[in-house]
Fold this sequence. Notes:
The chain has 69 residues and is an alpha+beta fold. It is built from two helices and three strands; from the N terminus they run H-E-E-E-H. The protein has one domain. It has a three-stranded antiparallel beta sheet with strand order 1-2-3, covered by helices on one side.
Amino acid sequence: MGVQRAGGRDGDRLSELSAEFxxxxxxxxxxxxxxxVRGNRLVRTPDVEELRARLRELGAAIDHENGQI
Length: 69
């Protein structure tokens, strides 16, 4: 049951991240690392909260590059 509970939490987090960062493709690999891809940018980390923080930073940088800030 531990695996099912962990899988459920992962699914919830994946849904949250996908809603928050709609422009990114987000997933979790077999190695346990979370990943996100947008264009030619890839972010990969074992910690979901680190992924969220890095995506926020990259989103701000991308917006700045595009003159949206």
